[in-house]
Write a structure and sequence with these properties.
Layout: E1 3-7, H1 10-17, H2 29-35, E2 41-49, E3 52-63, E4 70-74, H3 85-99, E5 104-109, E6 116-118, E7 124-127, H4 131-137, E8 141-142, E9 156-161, H5 166-171, H6 175-186, E10 189-193, H7 197-211, H8 218-228, E11 234-241, H9 243-270, H10 274-303, E12 308-317, E13 322-329, H11 338-352, E14 357-359, H12 374-381, E15 386-389, E16 394-397, H13 400-425
Parallel strand pairs: 4-5, 13-14
Antiparallel strand pairs: 1-2, 2-3, 3-4, 5-16, 6-7, 6-15, 8-16, 9-14, 9-15, 10-11, 11-12, 12-13
Length: 426
């Protein structure tokens, strides 16, 4: 075999990525185009065996301040068969030769490789404990098994297999999730595609403040949408509560409950049994519950006569796979289960489009109820996808001294400078 890396066209890159088992939207040429509008520049590389392409990489590049040279980053790693380590070795050898004369200080990759997989019952279905050692043999250094969201990309996620009938997928959801989805329908939560980025930004800021993460700038979200949406690779969804519609539905349900009460009373008049009394009690309790919901809906109708968007999310897909990437929700009216409605809507839309899976885009490793992110983890887990653990980040170093300064000394110097600055301000 004679391997060679060379630049490829966006068309060839995307065709190869979307036909490969490591297909990922972050390796599409359009993702490189998005990132090139910021501090990164992108280039597309292909690994060829003679004339046949056998691997690819959408590389991002940015200049490192002070020390000079470049950081290269392949988000979610090379698009290559990681089960064939002779091929991974060839890719590594060739990309080293390609990048070294270009001023690379180091290359960062975080492969979309299943290091560990647990099913909904927390049974381990796959483990690849030797993967890290194999990557080290190729010259990479492993950056460790980090937390959920403190790396370039989430190290763990949930992926829901969509290659089944929708009814069967729904049946596998957690009992609470199924109940919440049905309740969201009863509560008249409407999910629809939108371009209302003002509302999106408002909800994302509220979510970031509540959950303690840093949201991107609005212009970045718009850039992602405007670049990917025309190709069918992106959609902005919103879930909206409609109190007037909810009130009308509740009126119908109350009327039906009253009929059930009268029917139960007639049966008791004819023959008073414990079963008939139970039926009457249940009908009365149902009416009482519905009247309480009606009072709440009437109050909400006064506050939000035109309805209110409660949750929102930007979903991204490649040709065969889908991701729920950016999303948020309001603090109010959480009992209406708008989050469940919008998530199930995304699942249905990806399923209808024939996607292989839906990736929930990030959760925490070793879930602990004390973690501030445990609520997010528990919500995503209710949809019964596989819990995927990736191996994390790897660095391939080209210039050891500059790398040491950047990784070890530069962060320490920044901390000292910030500390001195704060002291001076005081």
């Amino acid at each position: 075999m004679s391997f060679k890396i060379k630049e490829i066209t966006p068309e060839l890159n995307d065709e190869f990525v979307c036909s490969h088992k490591k297909e990922h939207f972050m390796q599409l040429s359009l993702w490189g185009e998005i990132k090139s509008k910021g501090q990164w520049q992108s280039e597309l590389l292909g690994l060829f065996d003679e004339e046949k392409i056998v691997g690819s990489a959408m590389l991002l590049r940015r200049k490192l301040p002070l020390i000079g040279g470049y950081l290269y980053y392949a988000p979610r790693g090379f698009v290559v068969d990681y089960d064939d380590f002779s091929l991974v070795k060839a890719f590594t050898d060739e990309i080293y030769k390609y990048l070294k004369p270009k001023g690379a200080v180091y290359l960062l990759i975080d492969p979309d490789y299943y290091y560990r997989v647990l099913d909904k019952y927390e049974n381990e279905t796959k483990s690849a404990d030797d993967f890290v050692e194999k990557m080290k043999e190729l010259g990479f250094s492993h950056r460790g098994f980090t937390g959920g969201f403190d790396s370039s990309q989430p190290r763990c996620t949930f992926r829901l297999n969509l290659k089944d009938d929708l009814d069967k997928i729904f049946d596998r959801f957690d009992r609470f999730a199924k109940k919440a989805i049905r309740q969201s329908e009863d509560n008249c939560i409407e999910v629809f595609p939108s371009t209302d980025f003002e509302t999106f930004e408002e909800i994302m800021k509220e979510t970031a403040l509540r959950d303690g993460f840093i949201e991107n700038r609005l212009d970045y979200y718009k850039l992602v949408y405007e670049t990917l949406h025309p190709t069918g690779f992106c959609e902005l969804l919103m879930s909206k509560y409609l109190p007037k519609k909810h009130l009308a539905a509740l009126e119908e349900q109350i009327a039906a409950a009253e009929k059930d009460i009268e029917a139960a009373k007639e049966r008791i008049a004819q023959k008073d049994t414990s079963k008939a009394q139970t039926v009457l009690k249940q009908a009365l309790e149902k009416k009482e519950r519905l009247l309480k919901l009606k009072a709440e809906a009437e109050e909400n109708d006064k506050l939000y006569p035109d309805g209110i968007v409660l949750s929102t999310g930007i979903n991204i897909n490649s040709k065969n796979r889908g991701w729920t990437v950016f999303g948020g929700s309001r603090d109010i009216l959480r009992s209406l289960n708008a989050n469940y409605a919008i998530t199930y809507a995304a699942i249905k839309r990806f399923h209808k489009a024939g996607m292989e899976f839906m990736d929930f885009f990030g959760t925490i490793p070793n879930p602990d109820e004390k973690s501030p992110l445990f609520g997010i983890h528990r919500f995503k887990a209710k949809f019964s996808g596989d819990y995927i653990e990736f191996p994390g980040e790897f660095h391939l170093v080209f210039k050891p001294l500059r790398y040491f300064i950047w990784i070890k000394l530069y962060p320490t110097a920044l901390k000292i400078i910030k500390k001195i600055t704060r002291a001076i301000k005081k």
